[in-house]
Amino acid sequence: MDDRFGWLLGASFTSNRTTLTRTLGPPDAPAATTGVGNSVDEMTLYGEASFRLAEGLIASAGGRFTWSWLGGSGEDIVPSKLTENVMAILAAATADRRETAFLPSASIAATLFDDTTLYLRYQEGFRPGGLAIAGDYVTRFRNDHISTLELGGRTGRSGVDPFHLSANASFTRWTDIQADYIDSAGLPSTANIGNGQIWSFSVTGGMEVSPGLTIEAGVTYNDSRVDEPVIEFVSARANQVPNIARFAGRVGFDYARPLGPELTLTARGWAHYVGQSRLGIGPELGEAQGDYLDTGVIVRIGHERLGLTLGMTNLTDEKGNRFALGTPFAIGRDQITPLRPRTVRVGLDARF
pTM for the full model? Predict the structure, then answer.
């Protein structure tokens, strides 16, 4: 910004191609089954203008205009299943199409003191749609869209000031939510599950409690729900938006102490609680994940060019399911991606 006015203008182009092919059957003679190809080309123009309304008061407005070209095809579709009705459905799902979206944004920020700011911000975003496999068929899912209004404030800067604190509250409206579910063949697929909303509140802060020792902590609370599910997912335990934990929190420390003219001792540790959520929708993906404590500590002795480190992660040898799904082919056990067990590491780093 100059004295009163500032601006930003840009453009981007991305092109993405993915192909998924699958074989199922005995290990020595698997047969090809339905796959899918996806293509997305996206051109975006974006810009923002800021205006200083008064000393310490800045208003900004902008937006993104996106053109998306989507296409795709079915892979290895069994000819015997291509009835006239199925061919019509497949042609409609894989037909090339174009989508446009305008995503506005606006904010106002007030600097009360040299290092304290209050702000109000509105922003929209979206993800393009695509093709997915549901059973033996290729289906289409639409783009999803979010609108977020956020109110917050901050004082100080992490790593610069001896004390920093930030807090915010936001409300998000999410339409045509893209989520995972298990199809009739027992494999993961993607669909639009309906519309939902998220209330989110977070506070983070830190302070230098003594020379070289800084402690930081933060907590987040989310209240999410799918309040307008599509009819086929009404009874699929889809009331909570997938992959959004209700609670999360973290506490950590950073420590540095000179041991001589060249050597320095540094240490950092953390304890991070990941709250409970669910991976997707339906009986299989509706089970709980998260609800675990991730901990670790790392100590290093050395200088800029050479150092010896000793680290330990998962100090309590916590058991838990990370935000991921295991293999869908195993039975008789939970489908989880577990935490890495307690791990001790000794390392040597050198810079040349």
Answer: 0.81
